[in-house]
Amino acid sequence: MASWLIVLGFWGFSALICLPVLMGGPAAITAFAFLFLLLALSTYLYSASFAALINRLMGRSRTT
After folding, report:
1. Which of 1, 2, 7, 11 is nearest to 44 (CA)?
2. How far is CA 21 from CA 30, 35, 64, in A?
3. Mean pLDDT of 27-45
4. Which residue would you say has higher pLDDT here, 63 or 30?
5. Cα dihedral sign for 1, 11, 31, 21?
6. Residue 16: CB partners within 8 Å, gap ≥ 6?
7. How many CB atoms within 10 Å of residue 19?
8. What is residue 19's predicted lDDT score, i.e. its pLDDT?
9. Total-model pTM
């Protein structure tokens, strides 16, 4: 649960900093969609399943 809070806190703080610049119009909708994509990506990169994927890939490359 702490990892989710770290990711949410980081991207939430980033969104609060950028929010005044992005107010209004289609640019705001695009920016929020982009922030949601970054949130999902960073959450996956911080997950155990991504670490397992990297371990599998590194394990395959080390076999001779």
Report:
1. 7
2. 13, 14, 53
3. 79
4. 30
5. positive
6. none
7. 13
8. 67
9. 0.47
